[in-house]
Prior knowledge:
Blueprint: E1 3-8, H1 17-28, E2 33-35, E3 44-51, E4 54-61, E5 64-68, H2 70-75, E6 80-88, E7 91-95, E8 98-102, E9 107-111, E10 116-120, E11 124-132, E12 149-152, H3 156-171, H4 177-200, H5 204-221, H6 230-236, H7 241-247, H8 255-271, H9 281-287, H10 293-304, H11 308-319
Antiparallel strand pairs: 1-3, 2-5, 3-4, 4-11, 5-10, 6-9, 6-11, 7-8, 7-10, 9-12
Helix pairs in contact: 3-4
Amino acid sequence: MSDTPSMNTDHIAPAERAAVWRDWIWTHFGGLESDLYGDDSFDGRMAASHAGDVILTRLEANRHRVIKSPRMAQAADRAYLKIVAPWQGSAGVQQMGRQTWVRPGGWAIYDTSGDYEVANPERVEHLIVMLPKDELAERGLRLEPLMARHVGGVSGIARVALETMRTTYQELPGMSETAARGAGELILQLVRLSLQELAGRADATTQLQAFRDRIRLHIGQHLRDPSLTLDQIASSLNCSKRHLHNAFQDEEDTLAHYIQRQRIQGCMRELADPARARRTITDIALSWGFNSTAHFSRVFREHTGRSPSDWRASALGHLA
């Protein structure tokens, strides 16, 4: 078994912690941007171990978000499926037009070969598990529809998988290399079985998820249109606004906030793209459906804690 050195902000000057944390996240998870919701104070720690080809990381930190852009997803050396399983706090996983929230006792999965965002709106303690995608892909199991899904953890094989991942992380320091590799292979098998079960499940919960997917797909297709409204969505999907609101009542976001956040994330991707470095911030904001640069700047700072120009300078500096 091989370990990755632990990372801890306790010995870092408070004013420097946010920048150091961003660099650690970028390096450890392969080109992952992060922001702190505009908070001035921060502390966090990470410790990772390997169980064969499976990487398990325990992360404890103040509230923060992580974002992988399409460019960095394409640049990755190896594709992983990534699991977040909270011990404390919550995580919102967004990918492929889908979003799911996971809390202690559950886990969610996403694909590092595509762009994604994970929101941690409160102090968290997570187990993050990275599994080689090529070892989970198999004939007859389509992975794409299963990404950004709440897999489970309360009962059944998903609970066995969750308990095995947690126990493996805790016991890895005392395992031999051979035992650790075997534990990693067991995790891969249990996750594969959990995904097979999720793929075969068809109940009221998955029907609601499918309706949410339709809503998010429509939003994604019309996100740059300034006239995108709840009335327009309801009309296009042939349903009432009440039905739209009911579909999102158990989500952390309202539908209006979800639309705004998607537009901000689109702006963030373009501001971080060297190919668009000559485009003005105003042009980018207007192209994503914002009608006012003042409004855009305000909600951008609320979302990231930084001005659009600061975000662009930091993102392009990382790529350089």
